[in-house]
């Protein structure tokens, strides 16, 4: 059923039907009522692609995530999609993977879909190859990055202050009498390196000369368990461990449990993300809240400001906060 079919049955012009569909004025109330009844009867849905060709507006927003298994990032994508859907935007969510070629290909796909804007979630997108791909394919649309930033006229950033947040985690453990601390990281992204720097700053103030930093070589609980066993082997006197994400921290908790090491009496544990994993593990996990919800909503607001030609913030830094649970004294 096309607009012309509706017009023919209603006995009016196609332009009158179009005005009713788009809620424009200048239509007789009786004609409007008759057309609306036919639209409902035939379950008429406007062709978004055709309307886009006329208005030069696709109403499509791209959302890129490196790994859709990362609950922290998919939660952010959910908040963004819901907010934009309420404004009649359609979101295309792509799982890019972590290699430069795949990320560039995803950005190219967004160009093909004629997106009006894009949100890139995660600091893994903070690379020169992504900057070049954006310049080549999406140079004329607003791009908002969450927990990342690239210096380009059409790119905006919403970041969480994880550096000072992790430093605050070290201070919290120090206040609880912990003196021998280790840090386990899951990757080497810009975000994770800021967490490591926060750890380094914190332990310098504690007087711990050597930073005990370990790689989990993965993002699963099993990876966290394996790295924790390595920490304990090298430093049996460790009394506090900070993990770069909650999920690997749950693996660390399991390792300590299996060895009969009491949490938090003997070893305190802190994660980062304040995810559901921290709420359901035993003991519950103290975690650095890097404000997934707030970052997502802020990214939406910046993108909407750009789409509506309003002046907005190029770069925003949100403070993080520690959520204390059972894994710290």
TrEMBL record:
Protein name: LacI family transcriptional regulator
Domain HTH lacI-type: 1-55
CDD domains in alphabetical order: HTH_LacI, PBP1_LacI_sugar_binding-like
Gene Ontology MF term list: DNA-binding transcription factor activity; transcription cis-regulatory region binding
Protein keywords: DNA-binding, Transcription, Transcription regulation
PANTHER family reported for this sequence: LACI-RELATED TRANSCRIPTIONAL REPRESSOR, TRANSCRIPTION REGULATOR, MEMBER OF GALR FAMILY
Gene3D superfamilies: 3.40.50.2300, lambda repressor-like DNA-binding domains
Organism taxonomic ancestry: Bacteria, Bacillati, Bacillota, Clostridia, Lachnospirales
